[in-house]
Design a protein that fits this description.
Elements lengths: L1 H10 L5 H6 L21 E6 L3 E3 L16 E5 L7 E3 L7 H5 L7 H10 L4 E2 L2 E5 L7 H18 L4 E5 L2
Parallel strand pairs: 1-5, 1-6, 1-7
Antiparallel strand pairs: 2-4, 3-6
């Protein structure tokens, strides 16, 4: 049912307005802004996506929990694009299923690396399911997101964030 609703809302965006009005962003005055420390062509880049991307051999995100799944998946960036899939019922990912680069632009970043636009593509990336609400927001904010941030800080210079 969620997938049908997502397809309808994608096809008829005006129907989405009542759903959009239900969501309120989590606000914080403590979100830091970090200035770029290195030129992009010398930087190591990772992807963090909320599009529900994960490797086919990993446990899928939990679509049965109405509050979403606040966990994350470690994505091996050395794998072929065909090794990735999307588990997310809250947006129409038909096109992204055909070309994962729409929401997880690993192929484009590999091209940027070979052209010298970026210094290096990280081997490790992270996938979340973007539909998180209710009690899982606390888990995401206090556990999952800080853990991924800690891991990223240990090995990359910049992160490309992609939504679903």
């Amino acid at each position: 049912m969620k997938r049908l609703i997502a397809k309808l809302l994608t096809r008829f965006p005006s129907l989405a307005k009542p759903f959009i009005m239900l969501y309120r962003p989590v606000e914080s005055d403590s979100i830091p802004w970090t200035l770029v420390q290195k030129p992009l062509h010398h930087s190591r880049i990772a992807i963090v996506t909320t599009a529900g991307v994960h490797q086919k051999n990993q446990v899928a995100f939990n679509m049965r929990d109405i509050h979403g799944d606040p966990s994350f998946r470690v994505i091996d960036g050395t794998k072929a694009a065909s090794d990735f899939m999307i588990t997310h019922d809250y947006y129409d990912h038909t096109d992204a299923d055909r070309d994962i680069n729409i929401v997880f632009p690993i192929g484009r970043l590999r091209e940027f690396e070979s052209e010298g636009i970026i210094g290096q593509l990280a081997d490790t990336h992270y996938g979340f399911m973007g539909h998180i609400r209710g009690p899982h927001i606390e888990t995401l904010v206090r556990k999952s997101a800080p853990e991924v941030a800690r891991r990223l800080k240990a090995g990359v210079d910049a992160v490309l964030l992609t939504p679903g």
